[in-house]
Amino acid sequence: MSRVRYDISPWGETDTYLFKEGTHTHIYEILGSHLMERDGVRGVYFAVWAPSARAVSVIGDFNAYTPGMHPLKPRIDGTGVWEGFIENLGEGPTYKYHITPPEGGEGFDKIDPLGFYFETPPKTATKIHSIEGYAWEDAAWMQRRHEINAHDKPVNIYEVHLGSWRRKIEEGNRPLSYREAAEELARYLVDMNYTHVELMPITEFPFEGSWGYQVTGYFAPTARYGTPQDFMAFVDTMHRHGIGVIMDWVPSHFVTDGHGLIRYDGTALYEHEDPRQGFHPEWGSAIFNYGRNEVRAFLVSSAMFWFQKYHIDGIRVDAVASMLYLDYARKEGEWIPNKFGGNENLEAIQFLRQLNESVYRENKGIMMMAEESTAFPMVSRPVYLGGLGFGYKWNMGWMHDTLEYFQLDPIHRKHHHHQLTFSFVYMYQENYVLPLSHDEVVHMKGSLINKMPGDDEKKFANLRSLLAYMTAHPGKKLLFMGGEIAQWREWNYKESLDWHLLDNPKNRGVQQMVRELNALYRDEGALHRYDCEAKGFEWIDELDYQSNLISFLRKGDESDDDILVVCHFADTVREGYRIGVPQAGEYETIFSSQWKRFGGWDEADEYPRLRSDTVEVHGREHSLLMRLPSLSVLFMKRVKS
């Protein structure tokens, strides 16, 4: 039997101090399992935080999962960490920790919370696996990432569930591997002119139906699609194609499966003991104890790990609202107020600020995004100004108002004009991402196109105008896969997208429109440069509710052409409509959601240029006399002489 040594450890005094303080940001270097060589002997160093355990041993297929054969010893520094070095052990074996709880009695088996690689679910053991040695080829991307991801650059995100974007139907309907998906998806994203891909959670998780939002392995890409090195190759491939990679990350709650983090050492270690603080009633999951220093170190280190080891470009933090409020999804008497009597989770707020300060400090050019659905102030403002420190916040208010407006029959829209214009009132209070995400096309909500009113022709027209309106509205963009091909079915995580729909010219037209919209957003500085600054927008007319119409300018710097945007959401053609313009001259239409090649009902794919008249309207000396197609969005530019 391989013996266990206790005189080998990567820990230093600084590690101990920072871990206890909750400011250690790289605990993956000292906890978990690590292949090492000491005194000419190769083996594996194991370390796990379990301060209340009476005993901890490593069990695995190398010792027939026999408790006690390879015991760990507690460190004497008061960290609550158990460690040991097992000689003559290499890469590949599976293992767990067998933990004897503080009150004695029967022990239980747990995963390694710092495991880098796990068995493919439904199996649950951790694997001894090195994540070193991958030969990255993205140096050029990493060097200029801070320019690519800047607030004044285009950020156009395609949200993907890796298990269902495409599947190998001919091979038992299996999902693509990381490497297969990398090549196919990268080519598609480049062809569609996206700038970034966002992956629904790929951190290891037991139940496929959770879509990855019920996590067990915060330091491991799911084994469903391959090895850690395979996922590195995925990110590397994206970067070599000029695509940034954002991942969903879930520090708001964790799965309660017995092999995971729940009551890890026989006590509420990662979570709160009191269910009013430690149990999430809406999701049936456990809530992290953000007031515990070691838990904050665990979570911050997890985020840091993905940036440092996997070259991730951004993290979208899931369910931030549930973290900020102690009474989230709870009735009166089901929550405990903070020390001031309020409902704000002061410890979670401290954690989020620490998180953002830590990862931004060490990783140049990254993006941190919050899915936050309330009016909590300054989510995307710096910590030193009192904010939470995120780079961006999802604009859930825009999403809800916009979809409610577009679901209305056009005859009723004039009574709901405020839902179209309200987002423009607050659009620069935060750095916003406009999301049409997976959450909007599941649970009987209907696909995007099926939310649209009218017959099929009008559904397509409404969808095209919705997507064009999103492109014109200030804010970065996010669209969930399938929206760009007008998928009729709701998303199903077990099945591939309905790519066969592209045999239909109408679906193919939507895809072509999205392709061209994405290029316009990327190439026209006025459409992206000031997504987060008020000087990027100017109203022409926001008040014509009777016509279901708004018009505005998107503005860039002196090198950019202003874009005149006219959104006409009535289902009748409007002849002889006059729009005020900032300058005299000729104007050309550079985009129409009703062009024939997009499946629209215009007879042509271009409109004649329009020359302005000296007729005052909308407070401007010059104006255009226009014909507005029904259910349309137009982008126009002044022709330079």
Keywords:
641 residues; alpha/beta; Immunoglobulin-like; elongated; 24% helix; 3 domains; TIM Barrel; 22% strand; 31 strands; 6-stranded antiparallel β-sheet; single chain; 8-stranded parallel barrel
Folded structure, characterized:
- The strands form eight sheets. Strands 10-13-16-19-20-21-22-23 form an eight-stranded parallel barrel. Strands 24-25-26-31-28-29 form a six-stranded antiparallel sheet.
- The radius of gyration is 27 Å and the shape is elongated.
- By secondary structure, it is α/β, with parallel strands linked by helices.
- The longest helix is centred in the C-terminal third of the chain and has 19 residues, at 505-523.
- Strand 2 and strand 3 form a beta hairpin.
- The mean pLDDT is 96.
- The protein has 15 helices and 31 strands.
- The protein has three domains: 4-127, Immunoglobulins (Immunoglobulin-like), CATH 2.60.40; 148-527, Alpha-Beta Barrel (TIM Barrel); 535-638, Immunoglobulin-like.
- 24% of the residues lie in helices and 22% in strands.
- Helix 14 (456-472) packs parallel to helix 15.
- The termini are far apart.
